[in-house]
Amino acid sequence: MRKMIRNYRPDHMRLDYEWRYCRITKTDVPYTSNVSRPVRPDLNLLSMQDYFLEGGICGPRAFAGRAATHAFGIPSRPAPQTGHAAISHWTPDGWVTVFGAHWTHNRFRGQCGLDFELESRARKVTEEYAQVHRANWLGDAFAEPIVARMQFGVGGGFWKSLAHYKKLAIVEDAELKELASVGAEFAESNEAAESPASDWTEGDGSSEEEVNKYPPVELTDADTTITTDENGVITIPVAACSKPESTEKVRFMKSHDDSFVQMHYNLAGSRPELRSYTVELPEAGKYNFTATVVTVTVDRSFMIRANRRNMHEIELPLTLGDWMETEPVPMDLKEGRNKLQLTLKAPNKGVSIRCFKLTPVR
After folding, report:
1. Does the pLDDT of residue 141 top 90, yes or no?
2. pTM of the shown model
3. Largest alpha-carbon pair distance within the chain?
4. In terms of residue numbers, what domain contains 355?
5. Residues 35 and 68 in one domain
6. How far apart are CA 78 and CA 86, in angstroms?
C-alpha cells in the first residue's frame, strides 16, 4: 500500500491530515455492492488488492482507508456505526472520523465514540491528566463502578465520575476543540466512473475556476523537453503536452520525491479528456510505442490517435503499484511533425503515467 500510493497517487501524501493517505478510498475504491470475491481468482491477489479492482461496500472501503493510514505510520481504528463501517484516525489536531457520521454514532470494542474522543483530547495535557489517573485509582481502591464506556457520562462512583468530569474540564480549559467528521457524504457513494461518449474535443477544465481549484504544478525544462538517445529512442515526458493543466479528471503532480512530473487520469469527471503531444521525427517509419505506467486495476487500456488518422489501443498491465512499461505497439509515423493524442474510454479506472517512448523498428 505504501509503495502504491507513493507511485500511483503521490498527491494523496500532501493533503490536509484529515484526508492524507486515506483519500485513496474515495478516488480508487468506488462504492459498489454485490461484488463476487475474489474478482479475479486467476491472479491470486490479496483481499486489499482485490478491493481496487471493482470496489466494494462500506466495509472494504473502510479497510482500505485504514490500511493506507497504517502504511504511513498514522494510527487509525475502526469506527463501526449502525449498519455502516467507517474509520477514525489521528491528526496533529486530534482524532477525526472519516467516511462516517459524528462520534456520537461510533463504537469500538466496548467504548463509544464520544468517550474515546474525549479521552484522546484530554490526554494531550499530560500534567492535568495525571489527576484523572489518581481519581480512577481511588475509585478502584474503593471498588467503585466505572462510568459506562458505551453510555457517555452515565454511572460511576464518586471518584470515577470525578475522573470523567476532570477530562471534560481539561479540554474546556485548554480549548481543545473536537474535529468535525469528514467524508460523510462519500460514505456510501462516489462519483460515477461512466461518462457520455466523447467527441475527442480537447480542452475542458481551463476556466479560471478550474485553475483555482486545481493549482498548476511547477514544471522544469526536463519535465517538458522531448529527448532522443544515441539509439534513436525518443522519450516524451507526460507533461510535454500542449496543455499540462489539471482538471477534475486529469491531474498533473510531482512524484513523491519531486524528481519528475507524472499525470494521473482518474475515474472522476463528467467525460473523457484529451491530451496532445507533438513529436518531431528525423525520418518516416515504424516505431514501437510504450508508456511507463502505474495501475491498480485490470483489463484497462488507453487510446492513442496518431496524426488524426490511426487509432491505437494501448493495453494497460496490472502493475500492483510499481512503475512498468506497456507492451510495445507499432505505429507508422511520418518524417517531421507528428501529433499523438491520448484519452481513455469510459468507463475508465485510474492510471498514472510518467512518460512515453518511441523506439525505431529496424
Report:
1. yes
2. 0.86
3. 91
4. 208-360
5. yes
6. 6
